Automatic annotation (TrEMBL):
Keyword set, alphabetical order: DNA-binding, Metal-binding, Nucleus, Repressor, Transcription, Transcription regulation, Zinc, Zinc-finger
GO molecular function, one term: zinc ion binding
Compartment(s) where it occurs, according to its Swiss-Prot or TrEMBL record: Nucleus
PANTHER family recorded: FORKHEAD BOX P, ISOFORM C, FORKHEAD BOX PROTEIN P4
Compositional bias (Low complexity): 195-205
Record-given protein name: Forkhead box protein P4 isoform X1
UniProt DNA-binding region: 406-479
Length: 617
DNA sequence: TTGAGATTAAACAAGC
DNA sequence: GGCTTGTTTAATCTCA
């Protein structure tokens, strides 16, 4: 993208931001209910609210444009925004004045009964509010650096500017106003005195001012650039530009005094809008306006969150379901989710549903980047990063049970989980099938496919040991083999190791959600299902199963080596008798056949004796 | 680009 | 013979 294109793009963005704000302002002004809302104000950073989602980050801009270009760009944006805002406010003022005149004429007929019509007063108040809204918005813009003093304003006595009042000063003003004048009086005074300028010549003292532009850093780091731009001596902007000065007249609420140039305006500002009861009352009203705006913003934000929650959670869809943990795709969604649900976790679905998608979908339907279940993406994050599948299933049990979403786990991990969930750590093939269908809606169809896969996995992986008992053949898990089967891949990666330490390495989980899950996952890591104490599956590892279980965590813990952890290593020494590729090569049968033959023995006792014998071989 | 792992499909055998 | 269970191979896909 060339600088010219970027410039144009930025201008469009600035226009869009201005339009969005104007729309919000219009909504707030025309909404009668907004004035009735007396909820506590919610502090919402306007800089965030104003941020356009598609806005290019300052880092990107800095990479593309040179500092002078950036300065010119920002100045252009601000000029456009300011111009649009001023035009809008002027139109609003004209419209309100028109309505006011109409009401005044109508009010004259009722003047005998009501010296001052309520409607007229309401209009006046609305006009006042609108004007103060304009001022407040300009103040906000300036505080954020979106609108700044123009280069030519370097001569302006900044201490006289109303936006120079810092919050503490406003609080002081507030105290003064509340101590001297009731709110109603101040409003009424403003309402009746919109076009008069009767203030005295008291001026702001330097002690009561703060720097003209507060140094709230913008979230995207634009502060530095804007500061730099303020020091710039460039151009373009007409020197006679001021937030309260436009179209040759004073924009102070209710003033509209014509000023030929900025100097005259400044003089007018110092004399007519100095610190007095009237100005403090205006500040007080302005604070109320701000409060209402914040309430309105809070309402709109809440509405937005509800909309997003609706669109993502689809509660009214015929197949509602909650998203599993790793469905949260963005910080925004995460925020909305956490706001919607106090526990910060997606709530399980409340109703059983039919399969969401009849299509065969990729395992990683639940990746962070793919919120929706589309695309044959495969990602078995559980195996890759030793995901505590038990915790995942525990937290999203209802989801997987009802939603036709393929679980993001490998067949092997699912089979292992099914086996480990049983008290005796063993399952027949049919019981494994039942566990799959019971736990996952996804496995209630295409049975031939996934059952074949289950059988294939059971036979393929050495970690699954077939044991024949009196009831027939059952499958158990050799935890050690399971760990050996998948050596850690996070070799030397501090980040991954760190994630593993936390036990939250869902891979697809975003950082915020990982943080939210931290507490809930740790206890689950120690859940009984994660501790393998089965004597059956343990075979020769009786007494080591806890270690084996620990290995899963210890592995995650710190070993930055692809080799086994100390526990595993000692284990490996101890169980070196287990079939290895070399040993199998010397055998006439395959590894799997050997393993299975070794363990497919009449009873556990023989089985336990078998392997030490193999050790000797 | 490549290798490893996972998935899917299929063939085949054994047992009931 | 049909079904289930179990084994094995091969092709394909995904990801690091």
């Amino acid at each position: 993208m060339s600088p010219v294109e970027l410039l144009h793009f930025q201008q469009q963005q600035a226009l869009q931001v201005a339009r969005q704000f104007l729309l919000q302002q219009a909504t707030g002004l025309t909404s009668p209910s907004s004035n009735e809302n007396k909820q506590p104000a919610v502090q919402v950073p306007v800089s965030v609210a104003m941020m356009s989602p598609q806005m290019i980050t300052p880092q990107q801009m800095q990479q593309i444009l040179s500092p002078p270009q950036l300065q010119a760009l920002l100045q252009q944006q601000q000029a456009i925004m300011l111009q649009q805002l001023q035009e809008y406010y002027k139109k609003q003022q004209e419209q309100l004045h028109l309505q006011l005149l109409t009401q005044q004429q109508a009010g004259k007929q009722q003047a005998k009964e009501q010296p001052l019509g309520n409607k007229q007063l309401a209009f006046q108040q609305q006009l006042l509010q609108m004007q103060q809204l304009q001022q407040q918005h300009l103040l906000n813009l300036q505080r954020q650096g979106l609108v700044s003093l123009q280069p030519g304003q370097g001569t302006v006595p900044l201490q006289t500017l109303p936006q120079a009042v810092c919050p503490s000063d406003l609080q002081q003003l507030w105290k003064e106003v509340t101590a001297t004048q009731p709110v109603e009086d101040s409003i009424k005074q403003e309402g009746l005195d919109l076009s008069t300028n009767t203030s005295n010549s008291t001026s702001f003292s330097a002690a009561k001012v703060s720097p003209p532009i507060s140094h709230h850093p913008l979230p995207n780091g634009q502060n530095a650039m804007l500061t730099q731009r303020r020091d710039s001596s460039s151009h373009e902007e007409t020197p006679g530009s001021h937030p309260l000065y436009g179209h040759g007249e004073c924009k102070w609420p209710g003033c509209e005094t014509l000023c030929e140039d900025l100097g005259q305006f400044v003089k007018h500002l110092n004399t007519e809008h100095a610190l007095d009861d009237r100005s403090t009352a205006q500040c007080r009203v302005q604070m109320q306006v701000v409060q209402q705006l914040e309430i309105q913003l809070a309402k709109e934000s809440e509405r937005l969150q509800a909309m997003m929650a609706h669109l993502h959670m689809r509660p009214s869809e015929p197949k509602p379901f909650s998203q599993p943990l790793n469905l949260v795709s963005s910080a925004t969604l995460s925020k909305s989710t956490s706001d919607t649900f106090p526990d910060g976790l997606p709530h399980p679905p409340t109703s059983a549903t039919a399969p969401i998608t009849p299509l065969r979908q990729g395992p990683s339907v639940i990746s962070s980047s793919t919120l929706h279940n589309v695309g044959p993406i495969r990602r078995r994050n559980s195996d890759k990063f030793c995901t505590p599948i038990s915790s995942e299933l525990a937290q999203n049990h209802e989801f997987y049970k009802n939603a036709d979403v393929r679980p993001p786990f490998t067949y092997a991990s699912l089979i292992r989980q099914a086996i480990l969930e049983t008290p005796d750590r063993q399952l027949t093939l049919n019981e494994i099938y039942n566990w799959f269908t019971r736990m996952f809606a996804y496995f209630r169809r295409n049975t031939a496919t996934w059952k074949n896969a289950v059988r294939h996995n059971l036979s393929l992986h050495k970690c699954f040991v077939r044991v024949e008992n009196v009831k027939g053949a059952v499958w158990t898990v050799d935890e050690l083999e399971y760990q050996k089967r998948r050596p850690p891949k996070m070799t030397g990666s501090p980040t991954l190791v760190k994630n593993m330490i936390s036990g939250l390495s869902y891979g697809a989980l975003n950082a915020s959600y990982q943080a939210a899950l931290a507490e809930s996952n740790f206890p689950l890591l120690n859940s009984p299902t994660m501790i393998n104490t089965s004597s059956t599956s343990g075979m020769l590892h009786v007494g080591h199963d806890d270690v084996s279980s620990t290995v899963e965590q210890v592995n995650s813990n710190g070993s930055n080596s692809p080799r086994l952890s100390p526990q595993q290593y000692s284990h490996q020494v101890h169980v070196k008798e287990e079939p290895t590729e070399t040993e199998d090569d010397s055998r006439p049968v395959s590894l799997m056949a050997t393993t299975n033959q070794n363990v497919t023995i009449p009873d556990d006792r023989d089985m336990e004796e078998e392997l030490p014998v193999e050790d000797l071989s």
